[in-house]
Structures are given as structure tokens and as C-alpha cells.
């Protein structure tokens, strides 16, 4: 079975990597599903785009390449669209696929129906989410990353499959060494777009540091500074090569989130990474996070600075508690978010959509 996968961004993007690319090999070898993945922005162009150097001529060429790929969609058994067909959407592109009577799966893993924050002008000009409900209503099936997104999608399509974001557990070594030198390492992994959520937890870290030495590692965020000499701050650029090594340095992984409609739709990828590493987690009780984190089992849910500080002290004061919660985290990740479990769900979804479309066309 041959599937054309149309994404906006290449493998360096977390959404494209975790929702599509990581399944390419296992779907082929275990389930006979060949994914032909075509990002709108190839890697080099994506880097140029992110740095503001992608010129209009090249952008126009990328649109032509995307149109050319869609014109050849008849060579595939199914088309799988992640988040959209192009930065500036055109009904023509989607309707062309529909006219070919090829089954279409549309997938999204953020509340993009609300609109995404876009601070840069070029981002605002090359993003359009106002067609999202049309994609959802006209597709043969929808894949979402959590039940909150699914509830919205069900208003427009009766075939909605909830497949959470996951990781290849074999890629995540379990944290073995737990230091007892009195320095407690608080870690966060993310991107510049999600880094503003860290403002929620900074007062708690400052308060906690009055009695304990803290190492605060931010992987992939925005630069910050602390005048408190009890806080050793490390701002480390994220890369696919360094993330496993840096996660091993954390004593706890944190996931603060402002309680906004957009954040409620997030798929808790960073939490799953922490759990896969065997780390306890402290998270805001927002969206799916409050379902993944079980208080006093694999971590803590913290709603205000006092709860964050209390959670820090509980974990900092007990290596045994960190180990126990870390084991619970890893087990939950293996049972619910492992690549192999999710690949089976994805295979079943793709094949059922293809089969039902054939029956419908007869």
C-alpha cells in the first residue's frame, strides 16, 4: 500500500517528526505501508525560512513543486495531510485530490482551528488556518493527538481517530545516575514558541532556591538570566543529537502551561519525553497534561507557585521518591506512548479508511 504524506515542515520539526517520519520504517517493514513523505519546505528551505532569508522566488517555486506533487496523487492509494497542504491554503489543491476519489486522512496535533501565535510578519503572511474546518469536513477520516482536539473535530466529521504523540522507547535510555550532591536539577525541553510558559514557574524556582542549590537547564528555549547565585542556569540550543544526553541530566522534567484554549489542545510531547527517560514530572493541570500525570505516582500537578515549590522540595529531599516516580513514568510511557503500539493503531486506521473508501465507491 502506497501513501502520499503531505506535510508543511521537514523532519527537524517536532510535529512532522513525531507524527509522521518516525513511523516510516515500521509501517513499511511491519505493516506493508509505504509512506512517501513530501514536506512543503525541504530542510534547507526551512532553515532559510526560519532565518527570514527565503526569497519570494524560491517560495513561489515551492508552491509549484507542491502543486506538481498533488497532480500526481493518483499514483497513490491514500493521501495523508498533516496540518495543511501549503502555507497559504487554496481550496483548489484539496478539491483536486477529492476529485480523484482517493481516500484522504487529515491530521492535526494542535488547536490550529483557534489560530496560532505568530510574532513574525512573514509567519503571519504564510500561515492560514481558516480552512481547517473545511479540511476536516471533507476528509474521509481525521487523526488527532488528543481527546480535546477530537471533540472539536467530531463537530465536522464522524470518523475521528485519537492517536497520541509518542516516541521510540528504544531511543530513550532510562536515567540511571541520580546525584546526591545537594544540587537539584530542574529541566525543561521545548522551543522558542513555547518558552514563554516558563514564566509561570520562575517565581517558584526563585523561592525554592532560597533553601536549595538549583541547576536549571532549558533545552531549546529563550535566553534568560538570574542574579541569584544559588541558581546555575544553562540555556542549551536543542538538536536531535543532543536531546537524549541533556535529558539524562535532569532530576525532574517540568511542563508549565498557561491555561489558554490553545494550550489545552497541546499533545504533551515534552512530558512523554520526560517519562520515556524515567523522570518524575511536574506539570500544570492544563489539557491532556492532567490526564497523563497522576499525582504522587509519576509526578505532580501544580496549579500555583506554592504547589510548584512543594513539589520541588518533595523530589529534592528524596532520591527514593525520584526513583519510584521515574519507574512509574517509564512504565506508563511504554504502555501508552511507545512507537510500536501507536504504529499498530496508525496502520489499522490507514487500512480501514482505505478499505471503507473502496467499499463506498463500488
Helices and strands in order:
Elements: E1 2-7, H1 14-19, H2 24-31, E2 34-39, H3 43-50, H4 56-71, E3 78-82, H5 91-99, E4 104-108, H6 121-125, H7 132-138, E5 141-144, H8 147-153, E6 160-162, E7 183-189, H9 202-208, E8 213-219, E9 231-236, H10 243-247, E10 252-255, H11 261-264, H12 269-276, E11 281-283, H13 289-292, E12 299-301, H14 305-316, H15 319-336, H16 339-361
Parallel strand pairs: 1-2, 1-3, 3-4, 4-5, 5-6, 7-8, 7-10, 8-9, 10-11, 11-12
Helix pairs in contact: 9-14, 12-15
Q: How would you describe this protein?
A:
By secondary structure, the chain is an alpha/beta fold. The chain has 16 helices and twelve strands. Strands 2-1-3-4-5-6 form a six-stranded parallel β-sheet, sandwiched between helices. A six-stranded parallel β-sheet has the order 9-8-7-10-11-12, sandwiched between helices. Helix 12 crosses helix 15. The longest helix is centred in the last third of the chain and has 23 residues, at 339-361. The chain is elongated. Mean pLDDT is 92; it is low at 118-126.
